[in-house]
Amino acid sequence: PAAPGAAAALLQALGLRDTPQGAPKSRPVPPVMWRLFRRRDPQEARTSPRRTSPGAIQRPCHVEELGVAGNIVRHILDRGARARTLGPTSPTGQCTEWTVVFDLSAVEPDELPSHARLEMRFAEAEATAGAAGGWELSVGREAEGEGAGSVLLRQAVATLGTPVRVELLGAAWARNASAPRSLRLVLALRPRAFGACASLIEASLLLVTLDSRLCHPLTRPRR
Amino acid sequence: DAEPAVGRGLGGACRARRLYVSFREVGWHRWVIAPRGFLANYCQGQCSLPATLPGPGGPPALNHAVLRALMHSAVPSATGLPCCVPARLSPISVLFFDNSDNVVLRHYEDMVVDECGCR
Question: Fewest 10 Å CB contacts: which of A66, A139, A160, A161?
């Protein structure tokens, strides 16, 4: 093993505060992260040129596939959705609301978010699969104290067969602000017409940030 | 895993030498998902004439490194030779788990030596 001093210095140069303790056994790598890695890593590209067009210059500090600036991409899982079933007076009718929590404490203050995509996978009730007219998703802040939480955004959802994605940047926090340490959201999915409620299987956040300290401007083309 | 360095500054003209950094050897293979390592390479070799003269597509024909090599060949004790350093670098990406069980993809510029030059 490398001398601790040398390894610690290299870790610090890579912008990592401490050595991660290792892969959690139960967590597979999401396909989106594999795809981004294979597109991004030039040595991968060299070994499988099919993935990037020959001679394509990848802009530094830019995530081509998502079309945003950034040099750090994180896939953050929800810390466990707590479901609350509300009475008929609830604005969402009989359906459930979920509180999801994302721990963003690993994001450094110097990192500027450029993309925050919330992805949710729902399952419809077996008996009456499919609500005529689709669903309406609302994403809100968790209520503090007695007051009701504020709704950050609403989105029509045609089908629950594919993951539902919403962009939170600009809605959950301001575009040019650093990420909060923790993000607590209340999700509600209401069938537009009468239909069965759905259940939330998984919620995750794909967060892209730009740490400009690790960026170098594109070198000027040779005169 | 490196091409053996031959003495200080000896071993032919300035060029990139092979250096493979294995994350297993650094002890990071448990938390780095991919890659397993990468070719970082390093620069070594003589920067005397004619090695200092730029190849096609290189820097202008007469830059400071050439001037210094000329001075050295004329009065060796006056100045040392130019240095053999990275002239073109490329980035790598690392996919890993952090301590909050997030899957993280980080991109690092200037991690691989593609070309060396005398400066």
Answer: A161
- The nearest CA of chain B is from the CA of A186 a distance in Å of 21
The rounded distance, in Å, linking the Cα atoms of B90 and B115 is 10
Respond yes or no on whether the N-terminal peptide bond of residue A217 is cis (omega within 30° of 0): no
Asked if A20 lies within 8 A of B99 by C-beta distance, the reply is: yes
Left if phi > 0, otherwise alpha if psi is -120 to 50, otherwise beta: which for A70?
left
Q: Residues 6 or more apart from B12 whose CB is under 8 A from it?
A: B45, B46
**CB within 8 Å: A75 and B35:** no
The phi-psi region of residue A130 (left if phi > 0; otherwise alpha if psi is between -120 and 50; otherwise beta) is left
Cis omega (within 30 of 0) for bond into B76: no
| Residue-wise pLDDT tens digits, B3-55 | 666 555 456 888 899 999 898 887 888 888 999 999 999 999 888 877 677 66
How far is the C-alpha of B95 from the C-alpha of A79, rounded, in Å?
21
Q: How far A103 CA sits from the closest chain B CA (Å)?
A: 8
Rounded distance, CA A135 to CA A193, Å? 8
Query: What is the count of residue pairs from A and B with beta carbons less than 8 Å apart?
Result: 108
In three-state secondary structure terms, B104 is strand
Q: pLDDT of A208-220, one tens digit each?
A: 999 888 776 655 5
Contact A218, A59 (CB under 8 A): yes
Please state, for a pLDDT cut of 70, what percent of chain A lies above it.
Answer: 71
Closest partner residue to A36 among B28, B102, B105, by Cβ? B105
Of A10, A73, A77, the CB nearest to B105: A73
Question: Which range, A39-53, A141-155, B84-98, is most confident?
Answer: B84-98
Least confident segment among A27-36, A127-136, B28-37: A127-136
CB-nearest to A37 from B25, B26, B34 is B34
